[in-house]
């Protein structure tokens, strides 16, 4: 932006065009943006093996405070894909003035697996106008944080705010992604954005347009999840969709410090206390043998008692076969023995099918003629389904008819 204009937008954008350590001088209370361009790191990596191939290496960046694993609390970093540039952004405060901050930037080439490291020295300067007394935070629904960090997009937004606020001095204080405020990742449909919070500060009172959201009618519409009626919304609507129900207007000159004696939470970075100092060998050692015995002895004793009770019940409390027979009547034992013998005989007969036929199936003599009568069903199993007595009766009737036709003869009978 032109520093000679009436309205000055303090937006610091620094491009990494050199590979040596670089010093930057942001101002406290003003948004700081540093772009890590992939094009300027490609020279650190070997080119493609074939001449003429377009180099589009996937490059990612890792940023951390020198000597520590993470960045300072006020500094954030974002890179959407390995084929896009990385961005460092944040808003330093007056507490960081005069403290040089060295950020180590490590570039990783995912094609060659090589790295390149450079340092960024941030020297935070103080400003007389900081902090600006009137601060407004807008929530823009149709922007992502890396899109809003672009200098031309942020300049257009500050220009729209300038038209509705008319301040003498206007600064972009901070930018925060909606995901850092507990927002959810949008669905990948209709080109939805995650949203971004933009805080700006000015040196004059809020305009009537910005205060329209505080009216009872608009507060009621916001409680019913309806869009409030803002007269100056059309100046933003062409490029920025603002959720006016989430706008925050703060006059820091009227804010009362509630926790003035609260301890300083610090920057979240551990102090440099030197190397790790392990505890000395003079510490008293603890004997765990007693604890070990108690842990094993108590369950073992309980298990042993239960085993003894079970063994006594199973072995020592049995009556035995002899005692049972002595208490049983003799007639019952005889009956049981006979039944058992019969059962064994039937089972042995059922196992052996080749034994002799019963007497009812053997050849018999006719009582009148003395002829030998053939077996009732020799090798003929069709008659086995008939009762034995019924089959024998039929056979005897046939022989009686034959005997009537023949003369009767006396047969010697021996007693």
UniProtKB/TrEMBL annotation:
Gene (name only): LOC109103047
Stated name of the protein: Epsilon-sarcoglycan
Superkingdom: Eukaryota
Similarity section: Belongs to the sarcoglycan alpha/epsilon family.
Any matching Pfam family: Sarcoglycan_2_C
Stretches assigned to the Dystroglycan-type cadherin-like domain: 23-131
Subcellular location: Cell membrane, Sarcolemma; Cell projection, Dendrite; Cytoplasm, Cytoskeleton; Golgi apparatus
Membrane topology category: Single-pass membrane protein
GO molecular function: calcium ion binding
GO cellular component: cytoskeleton; dendrite; Golgi apparatus; sarcoglycan complex; sarcolemma
Keywords: Cell membrane, Cell projection, Cytoplasm, Cytoskeleton, Glycoprotein, Golgi apparatus, Membrane, Transmembrane, Transmembrane helix, Ubl conjugation
Principal localisation: membrane
Statement: the UniProt record of this protein carries the keyword Transport: no
Transmembrane region(s): 292-315
Species this chain originates from: Cyprinus carpio
């Amino acid at each position: 932006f032109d520093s000679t204009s009436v309205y000055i937008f303090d937006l610091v954008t620094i491009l990494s065009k050199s590979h040596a350590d670089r010093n930057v001088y942001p101002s406290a209370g003003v948004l700081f943006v540093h772009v890590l361009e992939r094009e300027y790191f490609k020279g650190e990596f070997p080119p493609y093996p074939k001449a003429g191939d377009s180099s589009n290496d996937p490059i990612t960046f890792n940023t951390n405070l020198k000597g520590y694993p993470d960045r300072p609390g006020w500094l954030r970093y974002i890179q959407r894909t390995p084929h896009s540039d990385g961005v460092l952004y944040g808003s330093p405060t007056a507490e960081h003035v005069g403290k040089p901050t060295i950020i180590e930037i490590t570039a990783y080439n995912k094609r060659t697996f090589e790295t390149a490291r450079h340092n960024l020295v941030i020297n935070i300067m103080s400003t007389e106008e900081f902090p600006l007394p009137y601060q407004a935070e807008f929530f823009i629904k149709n922007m992502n944080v890396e899109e809003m960090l672009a200098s031309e997009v942020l300049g257009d937004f500050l220009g729209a705010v300038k038209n509705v606020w008319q301040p003498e001095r206007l600064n972009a204080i901070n930018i925060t992604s909606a995901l850092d405020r507990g927002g959810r990742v949008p669905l990948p449909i209709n080109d939805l954005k995650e949203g971004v919070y933009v805080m700006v500060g000015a040196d004059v009172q809020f305009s009537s347009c910005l205060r329209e959201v505080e009216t009872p009618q608009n507060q009621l519409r916001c409680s019913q999840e309806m869009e409030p009626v803002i007269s100056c919304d059309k100046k933003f609507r062409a490029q920025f969709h603002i959720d006016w129900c989430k706008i925050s207007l703060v006059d820091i000159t009227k804010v009362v410090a509630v926790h003035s004696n609260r301890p300083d939470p610090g920057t979240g970075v551990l102090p440099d206390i030197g190397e790790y100092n392990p505890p000395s060998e003079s510490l008293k050692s603890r004997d765990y043998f007693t604890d070990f015995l108690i842990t094993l002895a108590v369950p073992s004793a309980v298990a042993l008692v239960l085993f003894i009770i079970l063994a006594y019940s199973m072995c020592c409390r049995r009556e035995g076969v002899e005692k049972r027979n002595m208490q049983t009547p003799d007639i019952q034992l005889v009956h049981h023995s006979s039944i058992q013998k019969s059962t064994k005989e039937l089972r042995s007969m059922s196992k052996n099918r080749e034994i002799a036929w019963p007497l009812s199936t053997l050849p018999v003599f006719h009582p009148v003629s003395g002829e030998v009568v053939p077996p009732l069903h020799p090798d003929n199993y069709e008659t086995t389904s008939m009762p034995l007595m019924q089959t024998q009766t039929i056979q005897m009737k046939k022989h009686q008819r034959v005997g009537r036709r023949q003369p009767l003869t006396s047969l010697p009978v021996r007693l």
